[in-house]
Design goal:
This protein has 6 helices and no strands. Helix 1 crosses helix 2.
């Protein structure tokens, strides 16, 4: 039963990460709902194997982003450059929503048992973050926020990068490293480490969003 709940909530998590990507870049979600669910389930299955079966949670987020990147290329025909940027922005945005939700519970003095990946507290937190992500996605769509410079897939797989795109690619690659560091710090350095790394992650997200805004204005 715990495995089913874990896989179900994990699938919803990744589905919402991809939903945020679609909303931020104004893509039609319904058109790719089947592919999105496939990607979400694969990421959830990977997470269960990494965290529960093999007990190596530090590789989970990296592998999830790799699956999103590869499957967006395979199923949605998104080219590598945009796929990397989009997956990082989606993951970081969802992480910040989760971070804010967690701190909101702390401010409200709501006790949660987060001791194990399958505890009731973890599931309650996941569902709360998911509801917050649904709200964020709704607001992005309702007020037509986001960017439109990335065309709806399929994309041309062969293209030359402009100098600005090369810089963005480097930032996105460093952001992927930041994901790995985030998990390592969270596991080994507790709350202080999480707070510090989430600030860095927010900075990386804002830089990527700023670059996206500049590209949207071209």
């Amino acid at each position: 039963m715990n495995a089913f709940i874990y896989l179900l909530l994990g699938t919803v998590d990744i589905f919402l990460v991809i939903t945020l990507i679609f909303k931020v870049f104004r893509w039609p979600l319904r058109q790719y709902a089947r592919e999105t669910l496939i990607i979400a389930f694969l990421c959830s299955a990977e997470s269960y194997l990494a965290r529960i079966v093999f007990e190596v949670p530090e590789v989970d987020l990296i592998l999830q982003n790799l699956i999103i990147l590869v499957m967006m290329k395979a199923l949605l025909k998104v080219n590598f450059y945009y796929g990397l940027t989009l997956s990082v922005i989606g993951s970081f945005l969802y992480s910040e929503i989760a971070y804010l939700t967690y701190n909101l519970f702390g401010l409200l003095n709501i006790p949660l048992d987060l001791s194990t990946p399958t505890s009731a507290g973890i599931y309650f937190m996941q569902i709360s973050v998911q509801l917050a992500a649904v709200l964020a996605s709704f607001l992005l769509g309702k007020f037509n926020l986001g960017f439109s410079f990335v065309a709806v897939p399929p994309h041309d797989g062969k293209r030359r990068f402009t100098p600005k795109e090369k810089i963005n690619l480097i930032i996105s690659s460093l952001a992927v490293v930041c994901i790995f560091v985030t998990v390592h710090v969270a596991i080994n350095y507790g709350t202080f480490g999480i707070n510090a790394i989430m600030v860095l992650e927010l900075c990386a997200l804002l830089i990527l969003m700023y670059i996206a805004r500049k590209q949207d204005a071209i």
